């Protein structure tokens, strides 16, 4: 018999039970549900809504149920619909009518909102730990490659020389922003909804602040309608994870390009590559491709929940049960992608010579040649035109700027002198970009030092 069956004359159809039930996926909330119930019943006793003996019996039984679940001794019942009703049913079976007092002053509406907030808080901390390890790998790579020159790109066309360290640190910046967003989401998630009841609180003298304090929340939801109908914190987390996956996907795309025969900038470790069932020479970047592919899956979770919530009237609606599967799946996906991506990245072999060779092609020093003329007094637009003519001359004669003779330079402009060759060397091109945020070794090392400080001081928790 269902715990809410009093108003009904007949049992629900078996198909309805299956359709309505969420226990197959929300059972993962059992820890949060039990912890929240213990805090609730502790408060009920303090407020003399139930007596202290009843509170102790309920808490002891809840702890036993928790242990039984952990030990794999408990099987959940689909007819009990969800994790909340399953645990309450187990409690009543264990201690009888005293267990029926647990739900005094609360609804499944505020209970599930509590469980989801507690679960998301826990998972944000877990994701942050995984992200921290990736950031350390990026920092380590950057330290090793402050002198490793490679081509920088715009439009996937060679643009200007940079270093591998500078390139890697761009992703570190993205991931640091992801951490800040997670921290911000944690702050907004860390507000207690319990006590809102079904939608309009309760007539019992609850102490919501005590429950918030016991469960580690910063405060309480100040509107009961919003407390039970809000899923912004789920959507915000899905948005955070989507952006994080997008950043991983962009990096994966570059890894896939870099380990191709056309680039040969890096080589993936055998442990993070796969072969072909028919082509014996193949070494495929499947891990990077899968991370890139799973990004769409996470986007789907975000769009799905946004669409579910877009037209729901206040307060709670059963549609909101759809928040769990998409949120759980996105969390599971990012927690699967981060460790394997981190390990893959930490084991790559960087082909410095190939990177350097790549930077010598495509006229990546053309801007520096123009800057050379500007420093000699020529207006930039005129300098731009001069170098454009030189590049065209090089293309037509299969030469590079650094291989032109001084006479060839001076046929275009007599401003050129012998010092042009030093001005357009790749090392000069990189290291004279000595502006904070630029690729010079001095600036990159300063940025690395700043990142080390920031990563050491960062915490999700206030």
Structure notes:
The protein is built from 19 helices and six strands. Helix content is 61%, strand content 5%. The strands form three sheets. A two-stranded antiparallel ribbon has the order 1-2. The protein has a two-stranded parallel ribbon with strand order 3-4. Strands 5-6 form a two-stranded antiparallel sheet. It has three domains: 5-104, Fumarase C, Chain B, domain 1 (Orthogonal Bundle); 109-357, Fumarase C, Chain A, domain 2, CATH 1.20.200; 361-454, Ribonucleotide Reductase Protein R1, domain 1 (Orthogonal Bundle). The mean pLDDT is 96. The protein is mainly alpha-helical. The two termini are 45 Å apart.
How are the elements arranged and paired?
Blueprint: H1 14-20, H2 23-26, H3 30-46, H4 52-70, H5 83-95, H6 108-144, E1 149-154, E2 157-163, H7 164-189, E3 191-192, H8 208-215, E4 219-220, H9 224-229, H10 232-258, E5 266-267, H11 286-309, H12 323-346, E6 349-350, H13 352-360, H14 366-375, H15 380-397, H16 406-412, H17 420-423, H18 426-431, H19 441-457
Helix pairs in contact: 3-4, 3-8, 4-5, 6-7, 6-12, 6-19, 7-10, 10-11, 10-12, 11-12, 14-15
């Amino acid at each position: 018999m269902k715990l809410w069956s009093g108003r009904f004359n007949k049992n629900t159809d078996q198909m309805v039970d299956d359709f309505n039930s969420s226990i197959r996926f929300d059972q993962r909330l059992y820890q949060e549900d039990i912890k929240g119930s213990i805090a609730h019943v502790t408060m009920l006793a303090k407020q003399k809504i139930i007596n202290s003996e009843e509170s102790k019996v309920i808490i002891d039984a809840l702890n036993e149920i928790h242990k039984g679940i952990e030990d794999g001794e408990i099987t959940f019942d689909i007819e009990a619909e969800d994790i909340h009703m399953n645990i309450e049913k187990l409690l009543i079976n264990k201690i009888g009518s005293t267990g029926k007092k647990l739900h005094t002053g609360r609804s499944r509406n505020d209970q599930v909102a509590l469980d989801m907030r507690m679960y998301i808080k826990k998972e944000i901390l877990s994701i942050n730990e995984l992200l921290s390890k990736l950031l350390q790998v990026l920092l380590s790579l950057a330290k090793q490659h402050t002198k490793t020159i490679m081509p920088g790109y715009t439009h996937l066309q060679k643009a200007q020389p940079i270093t591998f360290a500078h390139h890697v640190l761009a992703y570190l910046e993205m991931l640091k922003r992801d951490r800040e967003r997670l921290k911000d989401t944690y702050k907004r998630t860390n507000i207690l909804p319990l006590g809102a009841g079904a939608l309009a609180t309760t007539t019992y003298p609850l102490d919501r602040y005590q429950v918030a304090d016991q469960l580690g929340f910063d405060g309480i939801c100040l509107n009961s309608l919003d407390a039970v109908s809000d899923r912004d914190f789920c959507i915000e987390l899905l948005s955070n994870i989507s952006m994080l996956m997008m950043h991983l996907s962009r990096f994966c795309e570059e890894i896939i390009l870099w380990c191709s025969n056309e680039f040969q900038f890096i080589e993936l470790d055998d442990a993070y590559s796969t072969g072909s069932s028919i082509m014996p020479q193949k070494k495929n970047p499947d891990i990077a491709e899968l991370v890139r592919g799973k990004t769409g899956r996470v986007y789907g979770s975000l769009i799905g929940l946004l669409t579910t919530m877009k037209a729901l009237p206040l307060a709670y609606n059963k549609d909101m049960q759809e928040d769990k599967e998409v949120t759980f799946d996105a969390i599971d996906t990012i927690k699967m992608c981060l460790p394997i991506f981190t390990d893959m990245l930490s084991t790559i072999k960087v082909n410095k010579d190939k990177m350097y060779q790549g930077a010598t092609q495509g006229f990546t020093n053309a801007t520096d040649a123009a800057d050379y003329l500007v420093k000699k007094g020529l207006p930039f637009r005129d300098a731009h035109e001069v170098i454009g003519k030189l590049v065209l001359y090089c293309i037509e004669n299969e030469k590079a700027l650094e291989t032109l003779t001084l006479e060839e330079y001076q046929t275009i402009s007599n401003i050129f002198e012998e010092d042009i060759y030093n001005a357009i060397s790749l090392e000069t091109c990189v290291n004279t970009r000595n502006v904070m945020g630029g690729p010079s070794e001095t600036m990159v090392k300063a940025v690395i030092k700043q990142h080390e400080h920031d990563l050491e001081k960062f915490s999700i928790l206030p």
